[in-house]
């Protein structure tokens, strides 16, 4: 058996014979790889050398090929232009639905289970029940009252309207923000509601005006958006879109001020425009990041909120230099993501600050080199850090939202060049107090929202950091549960156990 290539994870690909049908992907990876292959006039692979995109490597499990069989295609070859073979990438079926079948998730969405290889009949048809423009009935975890267990209900999900996209959620994760508003600690409690905003899924259908997404695309829904038209979106310095900025009070879609969810005609409210605790949801196109279809959704789904927030706070806002010192206040998921950013940036000293000593051991996996528990010291923690770092840390990132920690994070950085970045959200009545001299002595205080990432423009590149093994996501995932046990994820969060719990929507 001859080796014809390697997967993006480095495993050799072997074939039982020299000939395999070609399957192409329209996604363009920023880093092409060289593999051993050659296409002849009929688009059948033999062994020689060509350059292909990593996104062209389609797992054998997708099409039901033998485990050893994996089809690859030369970059630039158009899907469906190979004589004698079925177009699997953009298949138009009954009802006019176009399905971009380039992943296991898209195959599942289309109802395709397995294929035999090779396809010799170009007129082979894929059976698919088109749901475009139809109401979809599916399961969703509905919060009927504040603080009460979610109830798995059958809900109706209306078709997407202008500039909206309906997506099938495959994996979602629980964030502390979901718990906060579920407990009705937010501004205006709104029930019944479908929570959830960290997730990964596949586009099922698109509404009027949507041109940059199509069925089958892999996407991450994000709680904030990027319309690409307002002053903020056009600015290279801001990600605070005028149209789609997070609004926790709004429980309806922007287009017509109506919900796309209902049960027996009763509207169920949305949450931050995502509502991912539902097998299907409708999201504004500006709140969807189209990502590499080879990226595992059960891993990259956590980039929809907290992890990107902490990571970007360090890489995009604090911007520590190689060999510098960084103090991280709060070692929860966001704080550890900030530490991960410091590790990626090459910081030589990453100082973790937390009142919970049990977090220190885990933090070492994220590059934290030293630990400070304020309870172990009689002097203010900013003075402790200043003594440790010969005058102050070069950078600090505050991820707790506690006003005292925010002040300490600012006052612990070095005069002349120190930069403190505030990530945590404080109580609305909290007041930040410090001496003006701390600013006059050239310390910089900055705030950040979602790590200064623009959802549509920037999140795809964060996914690529994971695909290129620069960013490690697996260590953030401490639990996995089926959708039917979603309330256990809330229990884990309330007990402070673990970092991120992945919820498998199909179970």
UniProtKB/TrEMBL annotation:
Enzyme Commission code: 1.1.1.1
Domain of life: Eukaryota
Cofactor(s) needed by this chain: Zn(2+)
Catalytic activity of the protein: a primary alcohol + NAD(+) = an aldehyde + NADH + H(+); a secondary alcohol + NAD(+) = a ketone + NADH + H(+)
Gene Ontology biological-process annotations: formaldehyde catabolic process
Cellular component aspect of the GO annotation: cytosol
An annotated Gene Ontology molecular function: alcohol dehydrogenase (NAD+) activity
KW Lipid metabolism (keyword) present: no
Keywords assigned by UniProt, alphabetized: Cytoplasm, Metal-binding, NAD, Oxidoreductase, Zinc
Residue intervals of the Alcohol dehydrogenase-like C-terminal domain: 333-464
Keyword Oxidoreductase: yes
Localization in the cell: Cytoplasm
Residue stretches making up the Alcohol dehydrogenase-like N-terminal domain: 162-291
One Pfam family it belongs to: ADH_zinc_N
Family named by the database record: Belongs to the zinc-containing alcohol dehydrogenase family.
PANTHER family: ALCOHOL DEHYDROGENASE, ALCOHOL DEHYDROGENASE 2
Protein name per Swiss-Prot or TrEMBL: alcohol dehydrogenase
């Amino acid at each position: 058996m001859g080796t014809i290539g390697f997967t993006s994870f480095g495993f050799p690909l072997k074939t039982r014979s020299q000939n395999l049908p070609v399957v192409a992907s329209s996604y363009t990876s920023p880093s092409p790889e060289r593999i051993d292959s050659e296409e002849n006039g009929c688009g059948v692979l033999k062994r020689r050398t060509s350059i292909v995109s990593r996104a062209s490597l389609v797992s054998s499990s997708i099409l039901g090929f033998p485990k050893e069989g994996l089809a690859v295609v030369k970059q630039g070859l158009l899907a469906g232009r190979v004589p004698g073979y079925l177009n699997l990438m953009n298949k138009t079926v009954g009802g006019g639905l176009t399905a971009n079948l380039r992943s296991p998730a898209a195959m599942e969405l289309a109802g395709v289970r397995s294929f035999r290889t090779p396809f010799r009949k170009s007129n082979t048809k894929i059976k698919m029940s088109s749901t475009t423009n139809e109401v979809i009935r599916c399961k969703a975890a509905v919060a009927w009252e504040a603080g009460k267990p979610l109830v798995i209900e059958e809900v109706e999900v209306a078709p997407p309207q202008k500039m909206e996209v309906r997506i099938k959620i495959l994996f979602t994760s629980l964030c502390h923000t979901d718990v906060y508003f579920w407990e009705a600690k937010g501004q205006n409690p709104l029930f019944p509601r479908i929570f959830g905003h960290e997730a990964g899924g596949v586009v099922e259908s698109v509404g009027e005006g949507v041109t940059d997404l199509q069925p089958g695309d892999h996407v991450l829904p994000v709680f904030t958006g990027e319309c690409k038209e307002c002053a903020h979106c056009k600015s290279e310095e801001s990600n605070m879109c005028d149209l789609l900025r997070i609004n926790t009070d709004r429980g309806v879609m922007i287009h017509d001020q109506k919900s796309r969810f209902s049960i027996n005609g009763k509207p169920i409210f949305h949450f931050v425009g995502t509502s991912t605790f539902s097998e299907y949801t409708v999201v504004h196109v500006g709140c969807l990041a189209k990502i590499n279809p080879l990226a595992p959704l059960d891993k990259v789904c956590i980039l929809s909120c907290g992890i990107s927030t902490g990571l970007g706070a360090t890489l995009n806002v604090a911007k520590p230099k190689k060999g510098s010192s960084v103090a991280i206040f709060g070692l929860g998921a966001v704080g550890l993501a900030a530490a991960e950013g410091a590790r990626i940036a090459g910081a030589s000293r990453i100082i973790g600050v937390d009142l919970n000593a049990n977090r220190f051991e885990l933090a070492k996996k994220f590059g934290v080199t030293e630990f400070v528990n304020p309870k172990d010291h009689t002097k203010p923690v900013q003075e402790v850090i200043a003594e440790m770092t010969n005058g102050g840390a070069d950078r600090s990132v505050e991820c707790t939202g506690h006003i005292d920690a925010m002040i300490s994070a600012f006052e612990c950085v070095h005069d002349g060049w120190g930069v403190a970045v505030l990530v945590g959200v404080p109580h609305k009545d909290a007041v930040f107090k410090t001496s003006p001299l701390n600013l006059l002595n050239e310390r910089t205080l900055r705030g950040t929202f979602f790590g200064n990432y623009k959802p549509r423009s920037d999140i795809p590149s964060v996914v690529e950091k994971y695909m290129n093994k620069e960013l490690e996501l697996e260590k953030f995932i401490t639990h996995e549960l089926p959708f039917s046990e979603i309330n256990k994820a809330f229990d884990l969060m309330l007990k402070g156990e673990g970092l991120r719990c992945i919820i498998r929507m199909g179970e």
